[in-house]
Fold:
Amino acid sequence: MSHRSMADTPRLLVVDDDPAMLRLVEHLLAGPGLGPISFARSGREALEALDGIDIVLLDNLLPDARGLDILDLLRARPNPPAVVFITAHGNEALAATALRRGADDYLPKDSTFAELLPQIIERVRRNRELRKTLVAAERDFVRAERLAAIGEMAVTLNHGINNPLMAAFADVDLLLAEPAWPADHRQTLEGLKEALERIRDIMRQIGDLRAVRTKTYVAGIRMVDLQGGEPAAPVMHRGIALVLVPEHDLARVIALLLRHAGFGVEQCETVADLQRSVERLGVSLVVLAGGTDVAGVHSFGGFLPPASRAYRVVALVAGDGTAARAAGADRVIQLPFDPGTFTADMVNLTG
Structure:
């Protein structure tokens, strides 16, 4: 069952001067999972038809250009589409060149085309979604750093301002208690007290800040909006998820997805760290790279999940996952996985 919205459904552009190619691709990719499939007969048409396109199926032999030249123009665009390069049978050198110049994958026009096209398009789509999720992880990381810096600044300001501010409040209140002040002096003191109250309220807003939003101040200068937006909705806590994935970017993507689903995420550096951490209360999920079929090598590098346990084990594998299942994995997910369904899988797995 797909958990992708229509907004996440990728659109494909077929760039080939043979209209039969479009009909073949539409037939092979019929069904859910892709948006509308467009067609361009030349390099110029392709460059004019890129708006909203996520994946380009690009032939090298075009009436007005080489596919490699179009590939270079595509890769130079901001937020470029993924490109699957089409080569003639037996032209591995051209395929290698296309990959070096930025193609995401390649596909030969031979007897394997019909079988491989759906697999390659799905793999490219998943890799593209993982890259988008990594960008989101980067944004979350930067946002967290900014919030941490704001929190440290709030502590500094409270430490440096709070005591003098309270002293100023006390002095103003003492002065206002004196009945002999002329009306204009009393009005000045009331204004001073209001200004001190505004400073106090701003300090509280900074201390309560949970999201960084900005707005334009003057001349295009941005400032933090202390009143922008509602507090983030509370997320159900689904327990602790331990992640042991050596590949750094992939580990960050997984951590982002799990946090958004309500898990508290902890990264483990070694199998020994993981083995110690799973003994704690509150662990509901373990995600780790595994599934090696090398003789004499344990599938999870020595991690041994007991048959009776309170947590679920998820293995990320490059193969069919037979070894990971034999080692005790409750769920096997093949790489590259689909971020659109990963979160729902983890929530369903842990109940």
Summary: Residues 1-7 have pLDDT under 50 and may be disordered. The two ends are 17 Å apart (CA to CA).
